[in-house]
Design brief:
Layout (H helix, E strand, L loop, with lengths): L1 H24 L1 H39 L21 E7 L5 H6 L1 H11 L4 E6 L2 H11 L6 H10 L4 E6 L6 H11 L7 E4 L7 H14 L8 E7 L8 H12 L5 E5 L6 H9 L5 E6 L6 H7 L7 H7 L3 E4 L8 H17 L1
């Protein structure tokens, strides 16, 4: 009897210890769950804020566009036809809702590709869904986003896909394009991707010569010629400083490069211009298109626009709304990048 009592007591003690351990361990998962839930809630709030900011920017752009004509969208070819064939060249751009600029820049690049590659079906893909939605809502024009363009290629039986981005630099947007294409690695027999505009030293020279030739009529010794780039948080933002050095190496000390969202800033450029003896300033975008940044941040009438700030500094200002994509030299450069990618694979 005593033996049975001892066994029972031992079992009770073990069960008590197990229960005690379970009780001690219970709060830990609960704390972890609470932290995970808090992180998820914070992430959802952040995404919601980003969506609200994005929507606010879109609505602001729509309101601004009501004040001026952006051009006839019906003159633009979205290049979203089917019956692509087995070999496609997908030209990927960020995009713009400015119809004339889209046709004169991105459209011109696409036409150059069609002429250079008669055996390839050239198609368009934009990376900005906001622009795609805005153009569709306003003008009824349907432009494929990256996923739609790639799915169209798959549905049409494309075997060899050549992708040529029109991005200025290998920055965040270019990386996003590469990441999305990587998801379709098994969908095609062969995928070829071209480099962005500013890749090699030779590319910088081509672009520098192009912008110098395009602005030669303003180069009178009394005019500061200022190009406005977009700017990026990525390391590739260094292309702007490099372009400045290339221009200096060409003896173009009156040419200045600035950015909207990074360095060099407008203040940096203004200080450099004021250090010289210039009477006039010519502003032009160092971007593929002359879109919202060029029309508003650069040439707009708001107090914080580059146009207004230079005018308030005492300069006569002329704004040239011409995107890089409209320059034949840039079109040919992108064609050469596509050729190089094809030949290397």
């Amino acid at each position: 009897m005593k033996k049975k009592i001892v066994i029972i007591l031992a079992l009770a003690l073990v069960l008590s210890l197990v229960a005690g351990c379970a009780k001690k361990e219970d709060p830990k998962p609960a704390e972890e769950n609470a932290e995970e839930q808090k992180e998820e809630e914070q992430q959802e709030e952040k995404q919601e804020e980003e969506q609200q900011e994005e929507q606010a920017e879109t609505e602001a752009e729509e309101e601004e566009e009501e004040n001026y004509e952006t051009g006839d969208a019906s003159l633009d070819d979205p290049l979203n036809q089917d019956e692509i064939g087995e070999t496609e060249l997908l030209v990927v751009s960020f995009g713009t809702s400015y119809n004339d600029s889209r046709r004169e820049t991105i459209g011109a690049i696409e036409k150059a590709m069609i002429e250079a590659f008669p055996d390839l079906s050239v198609r368009r893909g934009f990376t900005s869904q906001i622009i795609i939605d805005h153009v569709k809502k306003r003008d009824g024009e349907v432009i494929d986003n990256m996923t739609e363009a790639l799915d169209r290629a798959v549905a049409n039986g494309v075997k060899t896909l050549v992708v040529q981005p029109t991005h200025l630099m290998p920055g965040l947007e270019y990386s996003d394009v590469l990441d999305e294409i990587a998801q379709y690695g098994d969908a095609f027999e062969k995928i070829v991707i071209g480099r962005p505009i500013l890749d090699t030293d030779a590319d910088f020279e081509v672009v520098a010569n192009a912008i110098v030739n395009a602005t030669a009529s303003y180069d009178d010794g009394e005019t500061a010629i200022v190009f406005m780039g977009h700017g990026t948080e990525a390391e590739s933002n260094a292309v702007y400083a490099k372009m400045q050095e290339v221009l200096k190496g060409m003896g173009k000390d009156n040419y200045f490069i600035g950015t909207v969202e990074a360095a060099p800033t407008l203040d940096d450029v203004l200080a450099l211009v004021q250090a010289g003896e210039y009477k006039k300033v010519v502003l032009e975008p160092l971007m593929i298109v002359a879109g919202d940044h060029a029309n508003n941040d650069m040439a707009g009438g708001e107090e914080d626009s580059w146009n207004t700030i230079f005018e308030n500094a005492g300069y006569e200002v002329e704004c040239v709304l011409k995107g890089l994509g409209s320059f034949p030299e840039i079109q040919n450069l992108l064609v050469e990048h596509a050729k190089a990618a094809i030949e290397a694979n």
